[in-house]
Write a structure and sequence with these properties.
The chain is an alpha+beta fold. 21% of the residues lie in helices and 45% in strands. It has helices at residues 2-20, 32-40, 109-117, 126-129, and strands at 44-55, 58-69, 72-78, 84-91, 94-99, 102-106, 138-143, 149-155, 161-169, 177-183, 188-198. It has an eleven-stranded antiparallel β-sheet, with helices on one face.
């Protein structure tokens, strides 16, 4: 009886190990042209990501929640103990940022964040590069054999040059970015997207 119990336990452990090693379901990306067309029409989505920002003499990291609603977006960032760093809302009247218990408004989210935090971020272009797409002010586009954009050079709304790269994608037909890195001469952003929600 003891021997049978041991065999049963060993079998259970092996079965659980086998189940845990089953790879994540992988889908091939759509053909490049079709994929780009679908990404272009993706105007309503939400995502959660880990975000790290490194600027001269400072660094900030936390969790980013982004909601894209057509041409407008909302975003908030919390540090890893849950304290809010900023909340951003955009609409037809411009941008509103809540930071340190105060509310600020301006016509541009990029100008507002630069003024309040000292960060010059390509936030106006973010709805595109989050999806793995380059805008009109982009150059040096590089693609992988599956037709996915893996890097490009971006000139943001503040005339600052950024190098954008995509080291990893989700294994589905849209192949949305999973990791994104942006670098300028003195700033580095790293995003690890945990979840996409298409709405």
């Amino acid at each position: 009886m003891i021997f049978q119990k041991i065999i049963c336990c060993v079998f259970t452990v092996l079965l659980l190990s086998a189940c845990s090693s089953v790879p994540e379901k992988i889908e091939m990306p759509l053909p490049a042209k079709e994929r780009q067309q679908k990404l272009a029409t993706l105007t309503h989505f939400e995502l959660t990501a880990s975000l790290g920002v490194k600027v001269p003499n400072d660094s900030v990291s936390g969790s980013l929640n982004w909601q894209q609603q057509g041409e407008f977006y909302n975003a908030d960032m919390n540090n890893f103990i849950g304290v809010n760093i900023f909340k951003l809302q955009t609409d037809k009247n411009g941008a509103t940022v809540q930071v340190s218990g105060e509310t600020h408004q301006a016509q541009s989210a990029a100008v507002l964040l630069d003024y309040l935090s000292g960060w010059s971020l390509p936030i106006a272009e973010m709805p595109l590069w989050l999806k793995g797409m380059a805008g009109q002010q982009s150059s040096e586009l590089r693609w992988d054999p599956l037709g996915r954009l893996i890097s490009f050079s971006l000139l943001d709304s503040q005339n600052r040059r950024w190098q954008v790269s995509y080291p990893e994608f989700f294994p589905d037909q849209l192949s949305l970015p999973k990791r994104i890195t942006l670098e300028s001469k003195d700033t580095r952003l790293k995003l690890v997207i945990r979840q996409w929600k298409l709405v």
